[in-house]
Design brief:
Blueprint (H helix, E strand, L loop, with lengths): L11 H6 L12 H14 L15 H5 L7 E4 L19 H11 L5 H5 L4 H4 L5 H15 L11 E11 L10 E12 L2 E8 L10 E6 L7 H5 L12 H6 L5 E4 L14 H14 L6 E7 L1 H9 L7 E7 L6 H8 L14 H6 L2 H10 L3 E5 L6 H18 L4 E4 L21 H14 L5 E5 L6 E7 L9 E7 L5 E5 L25 E6 L9 E7 L6 E6 L5 E11 L6 E10 L2 E10 L6 E6 L8 E6 L9 E7 L5 E7 L5 E6 L8 E5 L6 E7 L9 E7 L6 E6 L4 E9 L5 E7 L9 E8 L4 E7 L28 H8 L26 H10 L14
Parallel strand pairs: 1-2, 5-6, 5-7, 7-8, 8-9, 9-10
Antiparallel strand pairs: 2-3, 3-4, 4-6, 11-12, 12-13, 13-14, 15-16, 16-17, 18-19, 19-20, 20-21, 22-23, 23-24, 24-25, 26-27, 27-28, 28-29, 30-31, 31-32, 32-33
Helix pairs in contact: 4-15, 7-14, 11-14, 14-15
Length: about 850
């Protein structure tokens, strides 16, 4: 959901308060929990005794993308070949591993004793959501109950400038990478991380790669960057990623590198991961994790407690079954080793690594592996014979297996003979596909007022590999034939785009687009750009940067103020406020000068906002109206009708509670009524039952029309309303019945009949997301943002009635056990669903 791409200002205390609800505390009395809630309300910004993230000395400097010339280090090259070349063999060959592993699994073995404890064995027929919930509960009981996160008190920042020589990694010229050395200080420990390419973080879309090192050498971060031993056993893998100018954070666990030494233990390792997560990673809009060897093992655990916006994880080279470490402890002559910093008997007796990866997949994390010819035989056997079958039992091919030996038979599939390392070409391609996939959604632009023909825009897959290659803009005739089509971005500078709304985006039929823009060609979006295009030539007839308003995110081009010539387009989005977007802004711009002609804040109610459109009163004049739709603090989507000159509210109303999302369609030019489309939960169970389009009187909030869209639609959004009041919708259709969208289509609905009177698929080359973009949320997600966190706790607490006392009507959705009250039992249900801020909650958590 769009709301997930922001961290709401003013809720820092509430969001942080969730971290007090550990598995142990969930057993505390209900009255004490409510005391915590009241404490949150009292403190306003910070919980008593806890330092807020925004107040950690050095944090702002650590995350600042300002260019700083640090200590220049000429990296020696080329990188070490210790891991990048074929080796003669491994300690355990594939041929030796299979009979050995099978014998270890016999009657009376460690495997035979621990396997019945696994949730995946005990529950062979449940859904992914259910197994994720069961594993999570067991993990909280056996692992997280022993883990506490040290509070970071300050961050020391040191600047480095690394210069990699020509031919270090296929580069014809030297490459300069800016790096910050970050020393996270907490009571009793220091955790050192390196932040590469901090200056290349996009202001409009903050993305980071989180790299977790393995067990190589005494300073894995410096080894990985090529600063010691030319990269050592890691083969300078981190350097090869950083040299692609990808923002990346890597760190050294305890007892290695510059981090403070400490006794080996799994809780200590997980505490370090949480320090990285809560202090640094939560500030990014997207986090892609990659782990090498033991770093992969740590990432398995990370799937069970991350709080950042984790989008994907790439596991490189660690798939040895966990039970073999227990076997090693009992058999001194065992060929299987164990890593003391993650060795934990209680964990190994209750979990296999596949359990943890399933939790990640259930939380929406895109997953891939890298497995190579020169991998250890036990690792191959563990991945192919245990981990992959377990995952496929619950998720059918929801992950990729890369490397040169993806089928784990010990024979290179392409002759590269890779060792225990990342398959970096596969990682870069996989990362590119994942990130472009999030930017490939087709958007509605508007309706041409002269001929009532709809415009759409999106990324076009020209080469047929499933990845968008360039942008395309198309206007379709009502017959489905393409009337006009062109590439609106020949320089290739647009990174992402948003569409428009309203009756049309220009009375002359010229469509507007807006999006994040890479002005200097370095691959980083550094501003928002708006352009108006001539349908005849595809050329921009007006274009400007939205510099007058410091937008953190632009969510929609909202329509036109038709009282001016030339017409002024409106844009809405979030302003940047410190580390978080904090205010919602509407602004209109003079297309001739690019200067903001008018703007106002409207953030009092909305946690995010999408525009519907703007209009003049009949016959022109003023005041102009701007309608905006978005989720409010009552977990309901609302519409506000605003005075476009002052921002004053003319009227507002809530949409029915069943709307899981509200996307603007536009204004009926004849009646001024507004159309909304979105996924709808008709029975209030938290799951989408249908898509609906509804028309409302913007002055009174009364519903004038309701359309239930056909089955087989997995996504729907608005394009605009034609001159006869008929709404055009852009829909993603499931053609083969597998639940995933296959092709985009346009449909126009006749309000008199409720039926589509024009329906056709658009160009098949428009990229389709691989997964449905509509998330199913649990009932405990009271604010509708996809997670269950401190905000939901507060919303619940405001509706407490007590045992046997019926709740007020607006609080009925807090009665989770449906016994006609809102009491401690219902709160226990909510506690089962607590996920943390910006972590997708389990839709089946209340079952």
């Amino acid at each position: 959901m769009e709301a997930r791409n922001e961290r709401r200002g003013g809720n820092v205390c509430v969001l942080r308060s969730l971290r007090f609800f550990t598995p142990r505390e969930r057993d505390m009395s209900f009255s004490f929990v409510l005391y915590r809630v009241r404490l949150v309300l009292f403190c306003g910004v910070l919980l008593s005794g806890e330092m807020g993230l925004a107040q950690i000395p050095g944090l702002s400097e650590a995350l600042d993308r300002t260019m700083v010339q640090g200590t220049v280090i000429d990296v020696p090259g080329p990188p070490s070949s210790l891991r990048d070349c074929a080796r003669s063999g491994e300690a355990i060959s594939v041929a030796d591993a299979k009979p050995l592993m099978e014998s270890r699994k016999g009657s009376g073995s460690v495997y035979a004793s621990v396997r019945p404890n696994w949730q995946t064995v005990q529950n062979p027929s449940v859904s992914l959501a259910q197994i994720r919930s069961l594993v999570q509960q067991a993990y909280n009981q056996h692992v997280m109950s022993r883990v506490s996160t040290p509070a970071v008190t300050s961050i020391d920042v040191q600047y480095l400038t690394l210069v990699y020589p020509a031919n270090y990694y296929g580069n014809p010229e030297p490459i300069t990478v800016r790096v910050k050395r970050l020393a996270l200080q907490a009571p009793g420990r220091t955790l050192v991380a390196y932040f590469a390419n901090y200056d290349r973080v996009e202001p409009a879309r903050k993305e980071i790669i989180f790299h977790v090192n393995g067990h190589f050498g005494q300073n894995p971060s410096r080894l990985g960057l090529g600063l010691e031993q030319n990269g050592g056993y890691s083969g300078a893998a981190t350097a090869k990623i950083a040299m692609q100018y990808l923002p990346l954070i890597t760190y050294d666990d305890h007892n290695v590198g510059e981090s403070s030494p400490a006794p080996d233990s799994l809780p200590r390792t997980l505490e370090n991961l949480q320090m990285m997560d809560r202090t640094l990673l939560v500030h990014f809009d997207r986090v892609d994790g990659i782990g090498l060897s033991g770093g992969t093992e740590r990432l398995y655990h990370f799937m069970c407690f991350f709080e950042c916006r984790m989008a994907s994880v790439y596991y490189g080279g660690w798939a040895v079954p966990g039970w073999t470490a227990l076997d090693s402890a009992l058999a001194p002559d065992s060929p299987f080793g164990r890593n003391m910093d993650t060795y934990d008997e209680e964990f190994l007796r209750y979990f296999q690594h596949a359990d943890l990866t399933l939790v990640g997949m259930g939380r929406g994390v895109r997953t891939a592996y890298s497995h190579n010819q020169r991998e250890g035989g036990s690792s191959k056997y563990g991945l192919w014979e245990e981990q992959v079958p377990t995952q496929r039992q619950y998720v059918v091919d929801a992950f990729e297996n890369g490397g040169d030996d993806p089928d784990c038979n010990g024979i290179s599939n392409d002759g590269r003979n890779l060792c225990h390392e990342y398959d970096l070409p596969h990682f870069f391609d996989w990362l590119r596909r994942g990130r472009l996939g999030n930017r490939s959604r087709v958007v509605g632009v508007g309706v041409d007022p002269a001929n009532d023909e709809p415009w759409v825009a999106g990324r076009l897959d020209v080469t047929g590999d499933g990845v968008g290659d360039r942008w395309q803009m198309t206007r379709y005739a009502t017959s489905g034939a393409e009337a006009v089509g062109f590439n609106p971005d020949p320089p290739g500078k647009y990174v992402d785009m948003v569409g428009g709304g309203g009756v049309s985006l220009d009375p002359a039929g010229q469509p507007w687009l807006c999006g994040s823009y890479d002005a200097d060609g370095d691959g980083i979006a550094d501003r928002f750009q708006a352009d108006r295009f001539s349908p005849a030539t595809g050329a921009s007839t007006a274009g400007f940067t939205l510099n007058d308003v410091p937008f953190y995110r632009v969510s929609r081009a909202a329509g036109l103020d038709a009282g001016h010539t030339p017409n002024f387009p409106w844009f809405i989005g979030e302003l940047g406020g410190g580390s978080y977007p904090s205010r919602k802004q509407a602004a209109k711009f003079n297309p001739a000068t690019g200067v903001a002609a008018l703007g106002f804040l409207f953030d009092a109610a909305f946690s995010s906002a999408e525009g519907i459109g703007g209009r003049d009163p009949p016959g022109g004049g003023s005041p102009n109206e701007l309608l905006i739709v978005g989720p409010t603090g009552l977990a309901r989507y609302s519409i506000y009708r605003l005075n476009a000159a002052t921002g004053a509210v003319f009227s507002s109303f809530q949409l029915p509670a069943g709307f899981l999302d509200g996307r603007g369609v536009g204004l009926d030019p004849g009646t001024g009524q507004c159309w909304i489309v979105g996924p709808f939960d008709s029975n209030q169970d938290g799951a989408r039952d249908e898509f609906t389009a509804r028309r409302y009187d913007a002055a009174t909030g009364s519903q004038a029309m309701s359309l239930s869209l056909e089955t087989g639609i997995v996504d729907a959004s608005g394009v605009g309303v034609d001159g006869s009041g008929r709404p055009w919708l852009l829909v993603l259709v499931d053609q083969d019945g597998d639940g995933a969208g296959d092709r985009w289509a346009l449909r126009r609905y006749n309000p008199s009949t409720g039926q589509a009177d024009a329906a056709f698929p658009i160009d098949a080359r428009y990229v389709v997301p691989k997964l449905s973009p509509v998330a199913v949320r649990p009932p405990a997600d009271l604010d509708g943002d996809g997670d269950v966190d401190g905000t939901d706790v507060l919303l619940f607490a405001s509706c407490l009635s007590g045992a046997g006392i019926p709740p007020v009507p607006d609080c009925a959705n807090r009665d989770f056990d449906q016994d006609s009250d809102v009491d401690q039992t219902d709160f226990s249900v909510l506690q089962q669903c607590l996920s943390g801020a910006f972590i997708l909650a389990d839709p089946g958590c209340t079952q």
